[in-house]
Amino acid sequence: MLTLTPNATTVIKDLTMQPQVPEGSGLRIAPAPDGSGELQLSLQPEPTPGDEVIDNEGARVFLEPGTAHLLADQTLDAQVTDGGAGFYLTAPD
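The structure assignment produced for this chain is given below.
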């Protein structure tokens, strides 16, 4: 199962706790719709049917079923810069 670093947990909670974001929202990770093989991250009010839901201390991540399998042994981390938040994946050593 995808794991979250403390940084990723904090950033996801900060994003989903904004006043304009519905309660229960999460970060959804799915293949980009252009078929490029890249992943797309988006804030969603609820998981899409079939999504795997990860809840780490209130930080919710919704994984598209095929993506969940691909990211099963990865770790999601985040970094905040002046340009905003950036997420990246790391594989186990």
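Interim note for the steering committee: The two ends are 16 Å apart (CA to CA). The longest strand covers residues 75-81.
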